[in-house]
Fold these 2 entries.
Entry 1:
Amino acid sequence: MQNPNKILFQSSILQAYNRLSIEIVKGEGCYIFDSKNNKYLDFATGMAVTGLGHNNDYINKALIKQIGEIWHCSNIFTIPLQNMLADRLTKMTFADKVFFCSSGVEAVELAIKLIRKFHSVNGKYRIVSLKRGYHGRSLAALTAGGSDIARDGFGPFLEGFDSVIPDDIEKLESTVTEETAGILLEPVQAQGGVFPLNKKYLQDVRALCDERGILLAFDEVQCGYGRTGKLFAYQNYEVIPDILLTAKGIGNGFPLGACLMKNNVAECIKPGMHGSTYGGNPLAMSVGNAVLDIISEPDFFFGVNIVADYFKEQLEKISKKYPKIIKEVRGVGFLLGLETYCSSDKIMLSCLKHKLAVTCAGNNVIRILPPLIAKKHHIDEALAILDDVFLEL
Ligand SMILES: *Cc1c(COP(=O)(O)O)cnc(C)c1O
């Protein structure tokens, strides 16, 4: 489809994205504004990043205060805010230790390194990941997942990776060998089309890992940090990983990622074996702590879940109204997908024309990622727009 909203020539920016010509210049709560002062309801949240809304006063204050104290110092020093955030995250999760970095893919990279290092003494090194998975753009992450277009021409990839279809424990069991060191997966596959994995499957995966001495790593870069209505998605599944990766929502837009792990895994890393210049620096930690302050308020998720349940219920209703357009509604909490019979690009552009920002996942899934702070009236606003968009199709 020829798309008039997409600019073909992108000046001096590498053409890694099929960019829209809309210039976003401001954000406020659940809305973003373009340079012509058009207002959009932001249910794309920068790909599940700005969950607490734009221009959040509380987070701004924490960052501005930190800007006036110190921006950066090396990890050869103790960074009090880093200790504080790590302590808080370990108290709230299965984890004993945390490593901070600046993006999702760096957290994934560390997970892969941890799995290999942990098992390096006994010759296990293979890692199994799932088809439809997405783990970022480094060579290791692309080896473990990603679309054909993301991988094509970038090989050869890393040795020792296997890939199986999701939700099929027999396939996984037959792929695991004596050399398998770890399993890496997203509990809710996001980029691949919004597919929550089956609870029984994840429990069986955990049991298989225990039986065979395999480490289980959950990539919660997108589905974590409140997206599924709990701090982390594993808490919905009641399946505890050995390693967990988070990013996106943890910084509400400030580049921040983290790899959480149990003590037995952490013990394989000694000084000099891993690092990151910016990881856990004071600016990032001021934001990380402020985000967690908000998200750990006692009633925070209670409110999120009420609004998210309402949204899903209403989306199901809309899907019944347009059975020729919508094939299925999928997802958990505020990580929702509408599988459609037509191009998701076309629907996304039509939504934008009606001042609603959503994202696509693959060719035929509209991925809807509302801010966690969205209220019922924001949901109603989005539903009305979606209804108009489908009516017009
Ligand atoms: C976005 C994403 C990544 C990569 O994160 P970056 O910050 O873009 O490096 C990794 N895993 C999942 C599940 C993601 O959604």
Entry 2:
Amino acid sequence: MAENQRIAYRICPFCEATCGLKLTLEGREVVDVRGDADDPFSRGYICPKGTALKHLHEDPDRLSTPLIKENGVHREASFDEAFALIDQKLLPLRETYGADAIALYNGNPGAHNLSHMLYGGGVAAALGSRNRYSVATADQMPRHMASGLMFGTWATVPVPDIDRCDLLVLLGTNPIVSNGSMWTVPDFRGRLKDLQARGGEMVVIDPRRTRTADLAEQHFFITPGTDAYLLAAILNVLFTEGLADAKQVADYVAGMAELAEAVQPFTPQQVAGPTGIAANDITALARKIAATDRCAVHGRIGVNTQKFGSLNSFLIDAINVTAGNLDREGGAMFPKAAAFAANTRGAPGVGRGIRPYGKPSRVRGLPSVMGEYPVATLADEIETEGDGQIRGLITMAGNPILSNPNGARLAKAFAGLDFMVSVDIYLNETTRFADVILPGSSHLEQSHYAMLLNQFSVRNVARWSAPVLHAANVPPEWQTLLRLSAVLRGMGPNPDIEALDEERAQGQLKSQIAEEKLSDAMAALKAAGRKGPDRVIDIMLRMGAYGDKFGENPEGISLDKVMAAEHGMDLGALAPRVPEILRTPTGKIELAPDLILGELKRADAELAQEDGGALRLIGRRDLRSNNSWFHNLPTLIKGKNRCTLMVHPLDAARLGLDGEKPAIISSAQTGHDLTVEVEITDQVMEGVVSLPHGFGHDAAESRMGVAAAHAGVNSNLLSDEYQIEPLTGTSVLNGHVVQVRPAV
Ligand SMILES: Nc1nc2c(c(=O)[nH]1)N[C@H]1C(S)=C(S)[C@@H](COP(=O)(O)OP(=O)(O)OC[C@H]3O[C@@H](n4cnc5c(=O)[nH]c(N)nc54)[C@H](O)[C@@H]3O)O[C@H]1N2
Ligand SMILES: Nc1nc2c(c(=O)[nH]1)N[C@H]1C(S)=C(S)[C@@H](COP(=O)(O)OP(=O)(O)OC[C@H]3O[C@@H](n4cnc5c(=O)[nH]c(N)nc54)[C@H](O)[C@@H]3O)O[C@H]1N2
Ligand code: SF4
Ligand SMILES: [Mo]
């Protein structure tokens, strides 16, 4: 290292794996990014996206000032101007039309950004609108629903204890590329190698032979959308062969007999045709799951964003429970995060359970889950006149035009809004509609703590990252969010940020500590002299499961202790948590909630009607992509076109595709068609085509020059906003029927 250089360690904020990175800096320049070999959790692993920390920071298209739209064109503006305009234009909408007239959409990067995690909620609260939307209903909402129904809270999510597991069964997830989801597992590849080295196996169930499937001992192609039948059949075998033994959690299981009865129609023979997996393979898999002491089944995007999303997640956990693999070393276990552990809240062992539904949505009567409506109905709520019609919108770190179904309709709806604000780092497909764009700050100028992802982590860890650069043009994002909440609270465009932050921290502390201990704790915080997210994280670490409780438990941790551990603090392997973790009213793991029994009936009815002949579309992720927003970084987008349609050779022959000329893929449901480059490959199952999401960077008003040169097409123009999973309203983004023909 040269004399004028310095080293900083940082958690990568770009995916759920939360790898520790080692940065070499010179002045304001990042000269090198590599994996931190001393990180106790990620052990030096880094993927190509990790280095984007440098390139994103340097991207000249990244916004460095607020933008205001005037006569259809965005111009640079000061923060004072931007907030004054929001105050002047957005608030009157609420005064005239009521709180629900302004909607909020939260996107994915907010989950990786401490400012959003800790200060985003304040914006929502200040807005006071029922019209809340997020990417969750294009992603993991079904996972939450399954957890809520079975264990009693939305956030009680078991994860495979991969480091001690001997049989890993994965459905609809490709962690070699995605690096895992609702399962924080840095260096999945290394951990898998260890698993295989100790004689363990991985089984992958996916309509595409992914890079993960390539490393598996067994891979089964499955017809998209049919996992529920397979999972129910596995349960059926466990029950009929007397292999259902919940073992260590047996005393805490309710509804086993009802579940056994409900899966009776799903025999391996019955489901073999629709799923495309032979009956004897299903039976053998069920037996193997039951016979392996340390086994975990896990599924994600491919099984969540499809027609049986919640049922799939539920049945996966039900298999873990009935095969005796839940809450057991090497099985599916519950993390215990050091801060904000949602699954430690309340009295141990019993709770109120979830209240699944709020008031249904105005236009389509869709479910409100976890306080939000399905994003699939956002356009309806903007377009449809009447009381409660949406006239204003705030998007925060989201690109719904590309990430959600029928972006063309959504774009039209956004264009008709009275006023729109976006908090974002780019002028892109979505933010081009915003009257005001507030820039997010560089990751390097903010502190970081993987607050959310630690909830799903395969080891319990606490790692904090300091800002490595002083804020240059843009204030740290938490300040922007505080200022936005203040405007929405009617405090005007120039609030006292320090006072608001003080209020934020005090509110957090009061929610955690007994009244009589409050003043001592406040004094301790004052002495520590922290502000913003750091202070809130300190409170939550100190009051958390491992915390020092402001002196009561001197051995416990605090932000000081976490900071002192330069590479992060390892809090150990996952430990059994049943029954303490349960929050259902019965104190049991509920295996037969009515909503799930209803879904099994629906599955039984649909099983008989599966249409074998249709061509089904699935998505895919690439190692160098990050949903829609990494396509502007030359180092990640260079090389051959990745926005191609994968087609099986037999389908290609049948459809008259030669792999040279492009094809037109269309959806009868949405009425859109796209012209795409074709890649003929037996990686996809016959009858299945695959196109990645996040492309379609052809909007003239965007300012993402590199992405525009690699525009690709928006695959979600083929996703129908009327095809949703009924329990949560999550969009069906996989397994929908499409038509393909040569483009001549
Ligand atoms: N067909 C299909 N569709 C899918 C999926 C699929 O598998 N198939 N996957 C779904 C999933 S899982 C997800 S998570 C979604 C993603 O959906 P979204 O969250 O709606 O979209 P992203 O593409 O993640 O866009 C993120 C936005 O945040 C901005 N941004 C990035 N970093 C920051 C920051 O630090 N601060 C601020 N303020 N803004 C920032 C980016 O510029 C971009 O505009 O897509 C979903 N859509
Ligand atoms: N490089 C990269 N990494 C990412 C992201 C990214 O965009 N790029 N996005 C991040 C985000 S926001 C998320 S949520 C995670 C998602 O992480 P994953 O859940 O691993 O998501 P995918 O890689 O899309 O894998 C989904 C798999 O499901 C399969 N599939 C589709 N339909 C079905 C089906 O009906 N049944 C079954 N069994 N399988 C099906 C697809 O073929 C695909 O292989 O990845 C994160 N990591
Ligand atoms: S795997 Fe995820 S966390 Fe790790 S370096 Fe890549 S993007 Fe960052
Ligand atoms: Mo996601």
